[in-house]
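Objective 1b. Sequence-to-structure analysis of PHB depolymerase family esterase.
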Amino acid sequence: MDFSKFNITPPHLKEAMELMKSGRLKEATTLIQNNLSGNVSDSTTPDNTSNANTMKDVTPDRPTLQDSATTKKSKPTEKAKSTKTENRTTPEERANQSPNKLPDSIQSLTDKIKNFKIDLPSMIDINGMSAGLNTHIEPTIPENAQFLQGTFKSSQGSHDYRLYIPASYTQAVEQGLHVPLIVMLHGCTQSPEDFAVGTGMNELAEQYQCLIVYPAQPVSANPNRCWNWFKPTDQQQGQGEPAWLAELTQSIIKGYAVDPSRVYIAGLSAGAAMAVIMAETYPELYAAIGVHSGLAYRSATNLPSALMTMRKGSTSSPNLAPNQKFVPMIVFHGDQDQTVNIRNGEQIVEQAKLRLQAQKMTLDRQQHEIGSKKSYRITQLKVIDDKGLNQLEYWKIHGAGHNWAGGSSAGSYTDPKGPDASKEMMRFFLQHEQTTG
């Protein structure tokens, strides 16, 4: 059945997507098989299908996380410890064993869809559909480390989160040390667990003795679990998602031995766009920011403009707050990104340059070409201050798409081919400390 001549999604395919979204894989399989064999009546029409101009969720709901009130600082149970030592399968193997693995008929269909010339909303990534159904893989953690579940309640509502505490944290506390904190914001359809597995940030936290907090965006806030970077109410200080994230960050700082001068925030895609917003709305809270495949501050103000911006970049120049403090920034973007056009990454850098120029500091711009057999070719821009510190880095990754560079294939929206974005972000972060005044 050839749909390449149509410019709409086949009705039965939309229905199958909705079934997969709700976890009804068997019914979706039957629908697809019947259609491919011609034994189906297309009662669904474009009039009664969902609006194509909406952000759609292709990931089944995950169970609600338990409140952390009784587990916040608890030690792993003996049962949990036993599970850690006995489970020797890799995240990749567990992904293949997942009960949510796509049936062969649906996997075959997703392969066929890649050849259809249909105008699906850019938030739907057919290539990521099978990965999207496996986004809740529990990461393997070392003995004595913890990956706590929590729910943080504030004036802006409640969100779940996961907090990674490295095995070395107790020793650091006993020595009177305070450790860095990194806030990691997942992309659309992802979960904290998936993002942790894909980026490998927990492993780096062990190496560099950091806490990592992964806030979770629920489907009640956005059906595709996107951070609402395009809504005016979520682009300002003191309200919406920025206020909730800031309060969560401050809560972790107060509840644990965190160095408040070494708090950082990073994200992918919609999470990266929200990280940019956090740097604009709470610059006094974060010492540096990491942006992977993101969008500039106030580059959109509603859903239609968001979809247009993702495809082509923003057509307007946002009104940046005057005299705002610049937050050092490292940016990654693939020049073959078909979900968030690379023009968006360039606009993030342009905004950062405006901020830097307003600081009236002496700056040196350096550009290099980097490449190896294990990595994509990279054009790297560095803006260095008079103290020799990188204030801005931009990694333009030639040939890369909408994926976390150097990430694990066990997570969604990752590309194992380098550069290693997580490692480079950690390096950049730990060069910077928050200053007052």
